[in-house]
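Table S5 (text form). Sequence records supplied for joint modeling of the two-component complex.
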Amino acid sequence: MFGRRDPDSRGYFGVYGGRYVPETLVAPIEELEAGYLAARADAAFRDELDRLLRHYAGRPTPLYPTERLAGPSDVRIFLKREDLTHTGAHKINNALGQALLARRMGKRRVVAETGAGQHGVATATACALLGLECHVYMGSEDMRRQALNVVRMQLLGAEVRRVDSGSCTLKDAINEAMRDWVTNVTDTYYLLGSALGPHPYPLMVREFQSVIGREARTQSLEQAGRLPDIVVACVGGGSNAIGIFDGFLEDPGVRLIGVEAGGERIAPGRHAARFAGGATGVLHGTRTYVLQDDAGNIELTHSVSAGLDYAAIGPEHAWLRDLGRTEYVHISDAEALEGFQTLARLEGILPALESAHAIAYTCRLAREVPAGTDILVNLSGRGDKDVQTVLEALT
Amino acid sequence: MSHVRTQGRLAETFARLRQDDTRTGLVTYITAGDPDLARTEGILRALDRGGADVIEVGVPFSDPLADGPVIQRATERALASGTTLAGVLDVIGRLRAELGPPIVLFSYVNPILRLGVVTFANYCREAGVDGVLVLDLPIEEADEFRALLASRGIDTILLLSPTTSDDRLRRAAALGSGFLYAISRLGVTGARDALADGAEEMVRRIRAVSSLPIALGFGISKPEHVREVGKWADAAVVGSALVSVIAEAGASGDVNARVEEYVRWLKS
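The corresponding structure-token record, covering 663 residues in total, follows.
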């Protein structure tokens, strides 16, 4: 289960990744890497995580063959129901893994960033369960549009710290979380929520999320009798996508498609589709595709979904794309809102606005692919948190 | 390489400081382009007149994650006035001949990558930059960069933190040039009332492995801090406190006088 496709010893996937951090963070990141490598080689650690994922988080999550989403076409669409995990999104897989690691490393204080609030809620949950102190940094714009998740985190005993700099979204929350970490390194664990940041985070988060792909592959063979032709997932930082892709990377017949946030339109500041407007650069400790201006400043981003509203993509995605193994497309705000409503009306499921991007693209794809195609979609989270945003957007 | 080092303006400056036991070197940091690049020219001249021994010129970057609120705000003002890395290098190039102290460019890595590292190194040479410190480019990632600068006679300034292991201190001692920048406390940049307790110990650890000059920074804002630092290190770095002086004087006409006066006071 572990150990495949590790980046090189300096944390590079091809030319992407690495460890671009201030000197103060080098030692704690080396400590984290050593701690993680020891934990993943320890059967007792893996058993404890497996036990929590099963009995606490509700894994395995179902693979649901949709009834009406594909319409009259002879295409089958399957949903990997990460929305049915405890706390309502795939984020819990990583939060439980890293919180166990934090405890194993003797850190009693956890800091995290959150965009949509799902990672913050998952981290607050894992910290409550394991008795760790939890501080979550969140942009003020995200606190406004994900107010429900702010209350959830607070009820779970976490302190939510408001970030008012820059675009007041995920990027700025990560800046603040890293500033906290750099100040409190000795007793603090930084629980990063996506497959980005300095090595070993992209590796570690992918491995904690790869449970999605492992389950989905087995379930596809059992329930559909075959592997899917196409796997679709939304990509912000890219953790749910890398998690499900991981199960199929060595199946060359399976197309892997990541869906980025096209926002209002592909113009500076109006979207978050890194492969549609970005260039290689460094943000938050990793070298990858980044939306930036000619002077190397990070561009503001926009998406109706807070969880996709980020200027960089996880380095392994950039590498897999260069290799031609994965493809990336983008879906606009309007299309995502349509995907949200379509899934609600046809299947009785409210998807997270992030996941609604994957649904919207899948609906388009279902009209274009040949009859007999099987599409697997990672339904990465539930949409309760987005009801207010959808209501505002539709009125 | 050692040939280049001994000839550098930074090496000369620190050699002179070491010969004079009576005073501590003063390294001054400003964020270029705050409030705008035209006024930065006046501020640079004021730093020189005030007696700064080394001038650090910060390149504004949209996501300064190693900086505290004072420099974050300065960065925002600088970016709002349209400051870019290329623009900062232009200003340095124009003023280099008339300014006495060596100039060290302080930057995050992404603006440099965007410009291209070779182009950047060439611009630095043309502008007369003496040293470069990249905050988020640790030793492990810096090989090519350091070689490009060294071949153009420019020092790569390495930053050392209380969390830096003795093993890394030795590597930094071997790879750094010009001087070593030691930060005296964990955390982001910002002025404090008192020096960190571990500052003396930090300098002692570095002295044990390196003969390079040491500048100690983070939290220094008063003449008594500078004098205190002088007991152990070659120089004290004043950043956020100076940036605050510039912020308060803002766009007013007396910003240059205020800066000059502040630098003189620090050296008193």
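Note: The longest helix of chain A spans residues 201-224.
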